[in-house]
Amino acid sequence: VVRMLPTAALLLLAVSAVAKENATCDGPCGLRFRPSSQGDGRVDTTIGAWPWMVSLQVFTSHNHRRYHACGGTLLNSHWLLTAAHCFVSKKKVYDWRLIFGASEIVYGNDKPAKPPQQERYVEKIVIHEKYVPSLEHNDIALMKITPPVPCGQFIGTGCLPQFRAGPPRIPQVCWVAGWGFLKEKAPADPLQS
Question: What are the boundaries of the signal sequence (predicted)?
Answer without folding.
Answer: 1-19
